[in-house]
Amino acid sequence: MIGTALQWKELEVSFSSLDIVRQDISALSEDIHLIKKAVLVCDELLTNIVLYSGAENMGFACGRSDPGLYIALYDDGMPFDPTTYKNEEKGPLDFDSGGMGIIIVAQTVSEWEYHRTDGRNVILLKLLCQGEEHEA
Amino acid sequence: MNIEKKIEGNTATLSLNGWMDTKSAPEFAGALGELEPSVEKLVLDLKGLEYTSSAGVRQIVAAHKKMNGALTLKNLTPEVLDVLKMTGLDKRLTIE
Question: Which chain A residue has its CA at the smallest distance from B89's CA?
Answer without folding.
Answer: A92
